[in-house]
Amino acid sequence: MAVFKTIRRGYTGPEAELLQLALLRAGFLLTPPDGIFGRETEAALIRFQQMNGLTPDGIAGPQSWAALTPRLTGYFTHRVRAGDTLFRLARSYYTSLRAIELANPGIDPLQLRIGSSVIIPLPYPVVPDNVSFTPTLLELVIDGLLKRYPFLRSSVIGQSVMGRDLTVLSIGSGQNEVFYNAAHHANEWITSPLLLRFIEEYAKAYADGGSIFGLRAGELFAKTTLYALPMVNPDGVALVTGELTCGEYYEGAQRISSDYPNIPFPSGWKANILGVDPNLQYPAGWENARRIKFQQGYVSPAPRDYVGRAPLEAPESRAVYDFTVNHDFSLTISYHTQGGEIYWRYLDMEPPGAEETAREFASVSGYTVSDAVYGSGYAGYKDWFIDRYFRRGYTIEAGRGQNPLPISMFNEIYRDNLGIFALGLT
Q1: Which residues does the annotation mark as catalytic?
Q2: Is the predicted pLDDT of residue 176 greater than 70, yes or no?
């Protein structure tokens, strides 16, 4: 269960963004989230509290957060009362009868049992496109997607250094298995909502009998099972987004950063919370990566580019490695930022069909098919996957600019990558 800080006017940070997002979705705030808990946000919260029988103190504490959480997960749990019908519930919550039926498989609309629970999806997408994507928001979004689309499945494949679950979502029933992952690097967190937005739109297209990127969702579903890990490095993301601002791990990250003063803190942080780069941890030329990064000066735990003492010592990388070994993926895509580039081979290894697929991805995204530069050509997940399985593995450097890319770029980046997400399932 998500745990929220108690915040009040004057607070700035991702919790204020979540508060503003919830108030915006509830109709009490008219301006987009900016992460600054100011006079307007306080007034909106007071109005919300008054309308929901809460103490109107303008402080977002446990009771207010509990009342606001359905606006972040995108659903209410309604306890059936005498006289309730699905049609009345849909009208009361401004949603559709179809959405309620989909979220409650097997429900009999003519025999609603008093006291039973009905999931009521709200009339907007679960995945937001206007706030920093923190581990807390990830937890809320995954909950909302699973409730809205019960045919989605989830599994925890491991934990981060700080004990956060690494949750994989899966969709599809086909024997062909593919794996998409995002946010190996902390300041590339925008890739997490990109992947989740695709899952949400694909799930909706499948449920509606429709298409995504011109491809029939039902046919994709029957052919391919997609496994998606939206956030490989949640501790690092918490640091970069400002969700983690105190405590033992934060202080440790500060000490690590002080050894590398040329890297801005925390915005330049790519590593896990112990200063090991999760995408330099895979056993594919790890010794070469170590030599190169040591020559570049990354000889100890660092905000970026420290390879660790040995391959797979980072629990996040180990979890991804083990998960891959236990599956039979025909294709993997690792999402990073930025540069608008597609990397498709490891050294001189060119798996069958890999270049052709890379060029298809380029044609639908406008990105460039590229070879990794020498200093970044070893020990990544894509490198290891190709080296071990000789199958199609890709690194997508989404968007253009300077990391961390602002959330204002989200919709543009998603439009560029929708075709890649969809074609990867074919």
Answers
A1: 378, 397
A2: yes
The overall longest dimension of the chain from CA atoms, in Å, is 73
Q: Is pLDDT of 375 > 80? A: no
The stretch 113-130 carries a mean pLDDT of: 96
Report how far residue 128's alpha carbon sits from residue 373's, in angstroms, rounded to the nearest whole number: 34
Residue 110 has pLDDT above 90, yes or no: no
Distance from CA of residue 125 to its chain's centroid? 14
